[in-house]
Amino acid sequence: MTDTFIVAIDGPAGSGKSSVSKEIARRRGYGYLDTGAAYRALAWHVLERGDSTEDPSAVLAALDDFDLALGLDPDERRVSVGGVDVTTDIRDTRVSGAVSGVARVPAVRVRLNEMFRAIVADSGLEAVSIEGRDITTVVAPDAPVRILLTASPEVRAARRGLEMAGQDAAAVAEALHKRDASDSAVVDFFEPAPGVELVDSTDLDFEGTIEAVLAVIDRATGGSNGH
Ligand code: DC
């Protein structure tokens, strides 16, 4: 999509793609783009305007007035909307429960994808890891490295449960399942598209997953381009 070297990583909730994409960026000195954060920020913006994300016309109206700033530093990820720092707020359950509503509006996806390409192009960075649901297929289908990161539903629910300490395991599994079902109606992130490498982290710990992803990158680049 630009001269920037792109590592595209897709996967369902709880697959570990955020922590993995971020760690890859740290170790290799890449920028890191969390596209889910943009969908979350738009959902936050719709709610802040007093509207529901279930109302596509309200979502489109919010999109017209969506002033997003998204940082690419894996160690200092800042997300703001209209100058308001929403880095923490976009992770709360109120936004998580509302975000699928914005993600299923086709015009939202088109506009956010334009924003992602512009953010990468304007960054001037040599390399960026981008994570989401449709990065390998829609946002950066020509990326030299495209990976689908998966894990079994049980393992994903358990990892999410650890992140949301104190929450009932069955409730976490149920929320995860609901969001996957809703999100996968829009883009298929369970099956790798042709040419996309599948990394299944069900039986891997974090370090093992990082090594598996770095091996895919090194294989794709012949381990020689210094990225
Ligand atoms: O990865 P995440 O949980 O932060 O994503 C938030 C929501 O945004 C999730 O419901 C799926 C959606 N999303 C999407 O549809 N396409 C992307 N490229 C990234 C996220």
DSSP summary, beta strand count: 8
Mean pLDDT: 91
| DSSP strand content | 5-15%
CATH C-level name of the largest domain: Alpha Beta
Structural class: alpha/beta
Overall structural domain count: 2
Radius of gyration: 17 Å
CATH architecture of the largest domain: 3-Layer(aba) Sandwich
How does the major sheet shape up? 5 strands, parallel
| Ligands (ions, cofactors included) | 2'-deoxycytidine-5'-monophosphate
Termini gap: 17 Å
In CATH, the homologous superfamily of the largest domain goes by the name: P-loop containing nucleotide triphosphate hydrolases
Please state how the strands of the largest beta sheet are arranged side by side: 2-6-1-7-8
Shape estimate: globular
> What's the tally of helices?
9
Quaternary status of these chains? single chain
* N-to-C SSE string, H for helix and E for strand: EHEHHEEEHHEHEHHEH
| CATH fold description of the largest domain | Rossmann fold
Helix content: 40-55%
Low-confidence stretches: none
